[in-house]
């Protein structure tokens, strides 16, 4: 007896059967629409990139543990992209001369990270990556925050369901040094501590703070700073605030798009000022749905030209968890609107002809490949989600007619072939 | 000075900048429409699969030379899919109990093969994969051939631009054994010879035939058989023809969808009867655009259940070459329909408000992120492909007005904010 291979997908990856794929397609279709309405242009790049670009730029955790690497027969050491940003930085750098900056670009890559699979985390996920390149202006921040709201809105989310929590790393640095008294050497460790703040318990945080060299009093002060919200801004030097795009956003008509939160820092190494994360307001879902930020110098691996950018990656796993939580997940699309059923095999060609007319009118139409008894075909059409069938019988056909039947009301009518399209349409 | 990394994509892969991506998106969008209209359901699977499934099923060339493999930290030996069929066979086998066979499925994967890059061949390409599973009926063949014609038609191709050349490997086997006198042992070698027939010169073919043990007379006979076209059918045993779906198609109303051609065999190991290739009729483009066929037992790696299928993969590279040759390639989409320009920075919020209204009406609308002088913004809007701009000036805005300007005619009008949408629409 032969030994069969497993039919499950490789650990941490997913099959998308038609029902799941239809959900994914609809969700991302709504997001494409919003992006296109705002003038974002879609691009794409290869899944394989030189491993080096991630090892140099994506932070230690990705480079050391999460990268899928391979060496080709030609000796190139490549990696499956764990994120899109280095690829798009490469493309922007390579085409900088012909681009009209600032540009708005988006893509829909799948990304691979070798992580322990768990709720919200898989090894291959799909994401929307949206960025603005070539501008230092706070208008870029506003555009990105508006985009986030429009995207969430297009998925049916109302403003009470999510919150955009934003920070500026430079504001936090200033607060940490000027108010908490953190030294420049301690800063990286304290940033990591802040990043874990909401995921760890107080004892653990306090221990980690002590390891970083903070006194108990400094730890208390840090706790206050992180909880201060907008009031923290009053305590920061004017000069620091003047340089902050986030402060500009908070002073603009777009302020209500975000909530200032000193606790947001994000893990990825390359963010330089604005950072944000979008949270589900439902207590069932504590993790950030997605996030992003501003990087002043991402293209520096590829060019001496400084190209600032701001953007985010929005992954399908946490997003669909969010939609499920709020009962916003779209229903899978049916297989067809209408099925054309020949009563006998000899009428298959006739059924195909009728199906062709229905399709020309934009109706999603299928015909049986293996013909069963009419009753069985009606059941199959119903299971396929069709709302009507067209039955092609010999006598009808000889007289130039077909029978149109609604699967909802079981009402049926014999009409001429020419009338079939309008009759079906009236039933849908 | 730092050493910069190359900005070109990894050899054999491609970046899709927005202009190229827009072409790809439009082309595949048309193909999705056709597939959905015919009741094909889209699915997707992981890029990484166990290397074993290709090594066992995809033919020697792929397994030995073209596979990108890697070993994860967990010790799994994986491969980047070189084709979609083994993945879909795995999914079909794993879900056979819950599926209503026959099923029509399609996907849009990217596939990786380590080949020498050349015209029509890259190392990462995108394809449409369409299959019908669970039917032995010739109606499945007809459905697939109709689908091919509809897909080509949706891209603007007229029937004179391409030809579907189809064969049945069993008919050819019969002709080779019964007419040419090929022994069962010689068959595989002769199939390979036939596959190369159009790509090699006559001396080379004759030498290869001699190596396979064919006499000069047999080689002459083989040449006749391959050139015979439909006339060959008269010389084949009735029993063989009765078992051939292709012969059924040729005897049906769908016969004109294909041209019978004994020379078509296709390389992939798993085809068992019907095979076809779609050719450009233009002499500039001699290679097959794409092709497919019927496999009786593809799921056998995963299940004892026999699940026949028929399908094809249609790759983006040869397809876009075809469209270019016939001047059918769609134009890249513009960045936006309309740009809303505030005359001064202080009116940015007002411009965003107007832009929001235009987007609600379905108009693709952008606003400047970094404001330049009005003349420059008009030039930028023109370059971005916009057909109109809305200018927001202080006095106008204070009076509840904006100025709408056509970029084609330079005609402009001052209207109320409420009238802006209809005025812009009338200009597009």
Automatic annotation (TrEMBL), chains A, B:
One of its GO terms (cellular component) is cytoplasm. Its EC number is 6.1.1.21. It catalyses: tRNA(His) + L-histidine + ATP = L-histidyl-tRNA(His) + AMP + diphosphate + H(+). It holds the Pfam family tRNA-synt_His. The keyword Cytoplasm applies. It is found in: Cytoplasm. The keyword Ribosomal protein does not apply. It is an enzyme of class 6 (ligase). Belongs to the class-II aminoacyl-tRNA synthetase family. This is Histidine--tRNA ligase.
